[in-house]
């Protein structure tokens, strides 16, 4: 500790390699974690480091990945969205609700053509995102509380739609994208990859992406630069809800059923993926690249723990501890960077 | 009689420096029991530093510090508090969500043997204390629901009745209405009778002269005068504060400066009867193309609020704005920017992105002009480079993180971001605050260039030098109202201070 402090002092004078590494800590630490975890599981279990298992991991993180694209935008703006899993769930249920179900499914639903079902489901999640956006920007409810309410609202809509039953059928396109594959690669992995790439391009190369970083970096300054901060915050809430909705529809197809509480674990997983990847909780730093690393850390961890002989109840604790470690690094990295700049 | 009393507090040869800069140089200060002692001086003259030493906020200094003739050294504000010293800071520090009574008894609520708060007793005693102060409010009402002036009076009352023997009031009257000021003065006089020693810091020299027994004047970290209030005048105090005889390095603006005749170029901004709660009252003025309009006033006079309204960050309660004859009511800062208004606030931290490179800081407010959807980083850098060259920003590296630049260069970046596509109206708050002489001159020259290009510029400052060095016409803002306009006439620092 003492030696790193002196290195810090020296680095500020010279601006050599050390300060560069420190300012990049949020990018380096998750990568090292990933390498360490992969190495550990590869040594601990012969079945881990196989091509088949890589495919498993990719498939397992796909739904989380799709949801995390939108969440990355939100966290970059120093906001949070706790309604992602609920919105994913209600959108998945909605697309099934508007699809003709087998006769044994006892839900009073409204069958429509596939395209209409998908359109309505997307409109639903976009609308819920818009409600989040209005609550946050027009009324001024902190996003933490606003999306907590939305979490309940979306869960309530889900409950009303399925009434404790399970629906199985979704439109054909969704079935293909959720559970089919193209040349051996699952469609859901391809969709996740495309969405992550799209998110990256928007954040890096568009004016809107720049605004997201600037609003997250210093909201006051963004306002004093004449940016429409509320519009940008509103937009990221809608983007987050729509990404969640797409993840929800494909997830339902992937699992083969649409029911209440199906996506509950995805809330924590998505937040963890973004934060473990190194996107700053204070906004303005990080991006989709970080989220991808975070997804792999989480995927390797979840998958790897299944390959080693470990008490399944202990796994939950281990996941919690890893998340805590990531949070510590996240906050610490921010502080180091601020020191390096000032 | 006075001379026979021995000082309750005595400081001898106090010197205090911050990072090599001396804020106080060999200051002697004595406070008698039953005395109201006024302190005046310009911003940064050392008044607040001295008071913070007395209140135990600054604990490292050289010199002797005696209480009741005993040499003392406070290690914290808590030590000062237990020695009977209390201070009311300039910024309100109350708990708006608690009741009036809870605020009055903050930290020492009366409790019974079980440790439970005795609400009825607390309410009764708070009511009694405030009544002595002439404040008639329900002690159980929520403090935040009361007007700001009343909240400030209650905070002052809390400190005055805390049983302190030495009370320091820093700018207590800036948010108060005239009748509230009267009540405060009446209470101060009563406490004086009871033997409390009071230090009263204010920019309002009339207030100081009316209530204090003795006045001490500070200039550049030194005590330059101490006199009985009855034996001095506003003019004499202002003269002592500013100093004659070219002590300062810069132009002292103590002599009259002739303002030009009012410009008859086109009106860019017209403000009519603008008002905002307790901050601004019936503000009306015009800003013209190719003219620098200075707005001078003390801290808290409403300048900040005015600038925020012009840039769409605050909504006025009443009144209208018109830019080039078109009425505007800005829904956001983005709307103000589109209408051609630009603002550089007094705090650079509020308008710059310290962890982003210089070029992104410069291009942020014009991105929508150079790119519809996709960013054009090469063009952004070119634009930034041109600005960096023109404004001589050092180091001239547009890829460097902004936080690496010095304060003066950051201020230039704050200007640069508005100058690629110059606005119609540029509003500058404290454009030269905290800058060294060289950087100040650079900024002054930049502003003059912009005026020559035909921009309408408004400079708001609490520093008379800033306004005098830039403005063609000067408005004086006092407690939220425009009280004087200087145009086509001689003006000096004295005259400005006199008006404010």
Task: Give me the secondary-structure topology.
The complex is a heterodimer of chains A (342) and B (500).
Chain A: H1 2-14, H2 17-23, H3 25-44, H4 51-76, H5 84-97, H6 114-139, H7 143-162, H8 172-179, E1 181-182, E2 185-186, H9 187-205, H10 207-217, H11 219-224, H12 229-255, H13 264-276, H14 288-307, H15 312-341
Antiparallel strand pairs in A: 1-2
Helix pairs in contact in A: 3-14, 3-15, 4-9, 4-12, 4-13, 4-14, 5-6, 5-7, 5-12, 5-13, 6-7, 6-12, 8-12, 9-10, 10-12, 13-14
Chain B: E1 9-18, E2 21-31, E3 36-40, H1 47-54, E4 62-67, E5 70-71, H2 77-82, E6 85-88, H3 100-104, H4 119-132, H5 148-160, E7 166-170, H6 178-193, E8 197-201, H7 205-211, E9 214-219, E10 222-228, H8 234-242, E11 257-258, E12 267-276, E13 280-288, E14 291-296, H9 303-310, E15 318-323, E16 326-328, H10 333-338, E17 341-344, H11 358-363, H12 367-370, H13 377-390, H14 407-419, E18 425-429, H15 437-452, E19 456-461, H16 464-470, E20 473-478, E21 481-486, E22 490-491, H17 493-499
Parallel strand pairs in B: 3-8, 3-9, 6-7, 7-8, 14-19, 14-20, 17-18, 18-19
Antiparallel strand pairs in B: 1-2, 1-4, 4-5, 9-10, 11-22, 12-13, 12-15, 15-16, 20-21
Helix pairs in contact in B: 5-6, 8-17
């Amino acid at each position: 500790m003492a030696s790193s402090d002196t290195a810090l002092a020296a680095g500020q004078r010279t601006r050599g390699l050390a300060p560069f590494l420190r300012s990049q800590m949020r990018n380096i630490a998750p990568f090292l974690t990933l390498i360490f975890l992969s190495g550990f599981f590869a040594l601990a279990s012969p079945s881990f480091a196989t091509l088949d298992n890589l495919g498993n991991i990719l498939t397992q993180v796909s739904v989380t990945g799709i949801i995390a694209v939108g969440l990355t935008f939100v966290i970059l703006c120093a906001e949070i969205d706790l309604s992602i899993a609920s919105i994913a769930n209600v959108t998945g249920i909605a697309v099934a609700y508007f699809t003709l179900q087998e006769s044994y499914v006892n839900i009073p639903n409204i069958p429509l053509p596939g395209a209409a079902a998908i359109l309505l489901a997307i409109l639903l999640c976009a609308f819920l995102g818009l409600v989040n956006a209005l609550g946050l920007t027009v009324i001024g409810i902190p996003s933490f509380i606003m999306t907590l309410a939305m979490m309940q609202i979306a869960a309530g809509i889900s409950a009303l739609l399925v009434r404790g039953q399970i629906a199985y059928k979704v439109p054909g396109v969704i079935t293909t994208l959720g559970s089919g594959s193209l040349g051996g690669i699952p469609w859901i992995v391809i969709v996740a990859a495309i969405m992550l790439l799209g998110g990256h391009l928007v954040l890096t190369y568009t004016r809107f992406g720049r605004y997201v970083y600037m609003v997250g970096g210093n909201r006051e300054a963004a306002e004093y630069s004449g940016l429409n901060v509320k519009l940008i915050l509103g937009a990221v809430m809608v983007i987050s809800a729509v990404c969640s909705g797409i993840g929800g529809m494909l997830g339902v197809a992937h699992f083969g059923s649409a029911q209440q509480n199906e996506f509950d674990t995805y809330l924590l997983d998505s937040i963890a993926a973004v934060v473990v990847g190194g996107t700053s909780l204070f906004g303005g730093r990080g991006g989709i690249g970080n989220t991808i690393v975070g997804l792999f850390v989480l995927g390797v961890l979840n998958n790897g723990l299944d390959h080693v002989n470990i008490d399944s109840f202990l796994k939950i604790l281990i996941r919690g501890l890893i998340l805590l470690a990531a949070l510590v690094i996240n906050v610490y990295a921010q502080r180091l960077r601020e020191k390096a700049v000032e | 009689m006075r001379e026979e009393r021995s000082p309750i507090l005595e400081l001898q040869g106090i010197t205090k420096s911050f990072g090599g800069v001396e804020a106080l140089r060999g200051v002697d200060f004595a406070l008698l029991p039953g005395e109201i002692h006024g302190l005046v001086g310009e911003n940064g003259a050392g008044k607040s530093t001295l008071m913070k030493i007395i209140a135990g906020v600054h604990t490292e200094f050289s010199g002797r510090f005696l209480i009741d003739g005993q040499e003392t050294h406070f290690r914290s504000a808590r030590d000062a508090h237990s020695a009977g010293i209390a201070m009311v800071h300039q910024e309100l520090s109350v708990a708006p969500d608690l009741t009036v009574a809870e605020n009055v008894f903050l930290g020492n609520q009366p409790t019974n043997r079980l440790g439970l708060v005795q609400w009825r007793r607390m309410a009764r005693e708070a009511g009694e204390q405030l009544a002595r102060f002439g404040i008639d409010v329900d002690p159980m009402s929520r403090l935040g629901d009361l007007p700001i002036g009343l909240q400030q009076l209650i905070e002052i009352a809390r400190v005055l009745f805390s049983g302190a023997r030495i009370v320091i009031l820093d700018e207590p009257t800036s948010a108060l209405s005239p009748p509230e000021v009267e009540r405060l003065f009446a209470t101060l006089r009563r406490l004086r009778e009871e033997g409390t020693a009071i230090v009263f810091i204010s920019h309002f020299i009339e207030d100081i002269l009316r209530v204090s027994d003795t006045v001490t004047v500070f200039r550049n970290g030194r005590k330059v005068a101490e006199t009985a209030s009855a034996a001095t005048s506003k003019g004499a105090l202002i003269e002592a504060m500013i100093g004659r005889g070219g002590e300062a390095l810069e132009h002292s603006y103590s002599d009259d400066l002739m303002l030009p005749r009012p410009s008859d170029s086109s009106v860019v901004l017209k403000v009519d009867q603008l008002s905002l709660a307790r901050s601004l009252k019936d503000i009306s003025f015009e800003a013209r193309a190719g003219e620098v309009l200075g707005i001078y006033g003390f801290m808290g006079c409403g300048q900040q609020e005015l600038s925020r309204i012009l840039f769409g960050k605050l909504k006025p309660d009443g009144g209208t704005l018109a830019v080039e004859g078109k009425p505007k009511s800005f829904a956001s800062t983005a709307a103000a920017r589109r209408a051609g208004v630009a603002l550089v606030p007094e705090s650079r931290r509020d308008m710059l992105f310290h962890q982003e490179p210089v070029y992104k800081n410069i291009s942020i407010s014009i991105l929508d002009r150079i790119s519809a959807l996709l960013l054009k980083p090469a063009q952004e850098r070119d634009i930034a480079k041109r600005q960096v060259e023109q404004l001589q920003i050092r180091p001239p590296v547009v890829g460097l993180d902004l936080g690496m630049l010095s304060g003066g260069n950051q201020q230039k970046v704050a200007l640069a971001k508005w100058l690629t596509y110059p606005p119609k109206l540029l509003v500058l708050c404290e454009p030269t605050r905290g800058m060294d002489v060289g950087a100040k001159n650079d900024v002054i020259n930049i502003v003059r260039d912009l005026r020559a290009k035909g921009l309408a510029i408004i400079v708001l400052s609490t520093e008379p030098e800033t306004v005098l060095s830039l403005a063609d016409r000067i408005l004086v803002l006092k407690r939220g109202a425009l009280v004087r306009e200087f145009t086509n006439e001689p003006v000096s620092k004295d005259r400005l201070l006199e008006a404010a």
